[in-house]
Amino acid sequence: MPAVAETLETVQAATEGGYKWGFSTDIEMDMAPKGLNEDIIRLISARKNEPQWLLDWRLAAFAVWLKMDEPDWAMVNHPPIDYQDLHYYAAPKKKAGPKSLDEVDPELLRTYEKLGIPLKERAILAGVETPDDVMPQVAMDAVFDSVSVATTFKATLAKSGVIFCPISEAVQEHPELVRKYLGSVVPTSDNYFAALNSAVFTDGSFVYIPKGVRCPMELSTYFRINARNTGQFERTLIIAEEASHVSYLEGCTAPQRDENQLHAAVVELVAFDDATIKYSTVQNWYPGDSEGKGGIYNFVTKRGHCRGARSKISWTQVETGSAITWKYPSCVLQGDDSVGEFYSVAVTNNFQQADTGTKMIHIGKRTKSTIVSKGISAGRSNNTYRGLVRIDRRADGARNFTQCDSLLIGDQCGAHTVPYIESRNPTAKLEHEATTSKIAEDQLFYCRQRGLSEEDAVGLIVNGFCKDVLKELPMEFAVEAQKLLAVSLEGSVG
Amino acid sequence: MSAPSGPLAALKAAADAFVADYHARKTSLPGDSHVRAEAAALVATQGLPGPREEAWRYTPLRPFAEAQFAPARRAEPSAALLARIPAIAGTRLVFVDGRFHSELSGVPEGYRVTTGEPAFGHLARPAEEKLVALNTMLAEDGAAIHVPAGTDAGTIILASLATGAAVGFHPRHHIVLEAGATLTLIDLALGDGEYLSNPVLTFEVAAGATVTHLRTQDEGAGAFHLSTVYAEVAEGGTYDSFALTLGGKLARMEVHARLAGPNAAAHLNAAQLLGASQHADFTTIVRHDAPNTASRQTVKNVLTGRSRGVFQGKIEVARIAQKTDGYQMNQALLLSPQAEMDSKPQLQIYADDVKCSHGATVGALDADQLFYLRSRGVPEAEARAILVRAFLSEALDPITHEEARAAMEAAIAAWWERRE
Amino acid sequence: MLEIKGLRASIDGKAILNGIDLVIPPGEVHAIMGPNGSGKSTLSYVLSGREGYEVDGGTATFAGQDILAMEPEERAAAGLFLAFQYPVELPGVNNANFLRTALNAQRRARGEGELDAVQFLKLARTEAKRLSMPDDMLKRNVNVGFSGGEKKRNEVLQMAMLRPKLAILDETDSGLDIDALKIVAEGVNALRGPGFSALVITHYQRLLDHIVPDRVHVLANGRIVKSGGPELAHALEAGGYAAVIPEAA
After folding, report:
1. Closest approach of B281 to chain A, Cα-based (Å)
2. Fewer CB near the terminus (10 Å): N or C of chain C?
3. Residues β-bridged to residue C106
4. Which of A445, A466, A468 has the CB atom closest to C72's CB atom?
5. Assigned CATH for C2-90+164-243
6. What is the pLDDT of residue A474?
């Protein structure tokens, strides 16, 4: 499989050390002035040629946001964010989507190359026609700062009725779907960052899988923050109709910069009867340097709504990047027999701070949730698992299993576990286990006696520790994720 | 700020009423008036724990704030109330509505007990815990127990009896064990009716000393029991506790254990057996502040009726506390469709060479086990009782004080009977 | 192959080895026997470089190199293999992947080419078959859920794959039934030749019936108190350690 081989090559390049995605791209940008007010929101909406209802929706969200306070309950510390000191819109200067290679800025293509987007997909992103027999298995969207640049395989997907496009395009082409579902899982008033995103979101992906359709390929989005002093506020909406199935992957990178950059995304998933959504993330935003300077503030709201009976939403995340991660991909299990899963690996090194976990809200009968969280702290970082499992009164026969393990590497870091377990139904069964330990000396010695260097031994043991999560990732991503773990922990031993 | 309304206003009004009571009586309250005045300033500014505070998210104090409690006066317990003190060999220290009654109490031998004023000690943190500030502001009596080095003080039965008068009392006890001393403190909170019991106990456990703190809270059905314990354990010392919660309308036991010296240990086991619309909260904060320290917590909840059980347990491991061994297990049995369990076990770890784990389970009685027992001819009610008792055993079994354990078993059996 | 002179070592300030002198020429198999606490396992850990063991004096030269100054993985790459008395479990780490990573790390360190997945698996399957290990043992996590016998066989498989110059077998016979013992012994015997030496640490004669040593040494109180041919092991079996250790009489 060529796609895999290319991913491997990219990964090999990645293992040479350091943050390999820290380049920036010189492209002419169309930028809104710094600052956040109604006029900026009107400008964003106008740039995107949005209907009035969406502008009204944004302005309402902004009004809500103004009345809210930034949450302070997470175990993260950062200097106050000046929301007026950011650009809320930045886009490569291009009017329409690329029709041919010539229309794509060569710098952008080089960016994709550096991002490790496989060659064929790069070509397709650039609009080059590819015969069906060499078709890669992944359809891709790429979001560059504020706008979606190109989406591949739209035609192929359209044959099966699958819509996969930038959300800004969906607003134009499928306004009824967007209007129906936008904010239906994460309301504008849900939390501070969701309100902010609702007011200023610029792009993201939109996926619609019709009834009974099994999406013929993996869907994938690469997100990249490039411009200085910009926030990235993408919005992703995935709707899986009855008995449909989709697997969606997202990857994130950002250039190395001394100042902190803000990323506040919202992802909404809706699954109807018998539908399955598998959502995988490899988050590798720039984490800041070894002194804790720079890095992305990653404040993300991700929630899936299992509306239908026997629906299933599965979140898998590998979080190695960002200076601060604040993220709780959640499942509202409303349909009877619906299933929620959360598999997470979070690695923090140097001065990174991660406060991440999930919420599983059991409403329907016999709903089932599984949480497997592996946290690895090194350097002077802090890594917190925060999770809520709630069993509602009506959720007869609900089940939850939670396993939360933390690994500490070095004695200057912290590992924290903050689960909330709430049960209001006697027929429900909840099990929660959490452990904290360090890499055992005897394991390290055993590996070294067999000839492995200490760093390789740590990498091997850490990968073993994370195996239950990594095996949930699609194959190409799993390989990448394993290498990422090793790179992220570089310099943490010895 | 807009005009206060709802629970916040009720809490504010209740705090103001307590502060007014303090100002009306402050010249006649015994003990260190400076400490008391500082606490009063805290209560005046901070008020009572509110629903938005993380530490109180599962235990809203609104019902407490809406009740009225007059200052307690000297009162005589009924014979029936006195008879609830189990016959356990040891020295009795009896408090009635928060006041010490020497005529009902025994004479200590080999160690000192001082009563007649609150024993403030220096471990409590009124600035951190609002109910401790309230206690400090209004405490009128308490026992200062001082066990000299190397002394085995045997068993003390510290009985707090409530007559049922609609009063509030805030006893303040301070227990000091010098190096190598040992003491078993049977701590009973018994009563009838509606009242507020807001005791604070502080334990200073010196090197190699061991205190065994066995608590039974069987307050009146309308009572508020809000207690706070601080234990500071030096090198090689042990704070070994078990807390049984049976009574009260709204109850919370909060325990702060700090393992300050190497090889110090804390055991914070508990069982909460609740029915009707009872609400009980067992909250622990164990801080490992020295290497090679160990903590063990097994907390069991049996919930019937519309009761709500809460467990919050936090294990904190400081950077210096390498080789910490921390274990916490919290389990709940929900025996009725209206019962609710909220659990928040928490690890906060800053040292790498540690072994810390927690577990939590919530569920009903195991149907297979129940069926197995019944298929062997055990009637259902009895089978349930057997399984519930088995469920509790992990928390009860470590109690080595035979008489105390027997008394607790009896109290549990009585609770099970009256539940039906 | 291995030359130890006056080796003294301690743990937490407590002296365990009190001057070991031992020479194992290329191609020879030596056995070390001794009562509990005599320092047998300490010797194997000091030679392989485990942390927590303080070398207080003496030298150990392996294939011409001062191994005491080397990192554990450097010693491994130089050809030193320790079959652990208690093989360590590595949850989530696939046995085949582990072995290939180790083998290639060693080959890299020696400037040899790495084996690709196909070459490796072929070799691993051949060796596993020779040791009567089912293929699926390669797929399982390293030692996780292995029986005592399986763990020891896994150690021998690793040894066969890594082809060390010197193998130290630390009580590899403990916990083995007679069939497994024979398989392990065959694994060691198959490697015997001019380029392979072994130091077999054991409590009992039993293993030495199957791996016949060239020399037998008796370790007591951190010293080698007696050396001899294979017959010494039989004498120990018959008369116990008291007969050969003056202090223990």
Report:
1. 13
2. C
3. none
4. A445
5. 3.40.50.300
6. 82
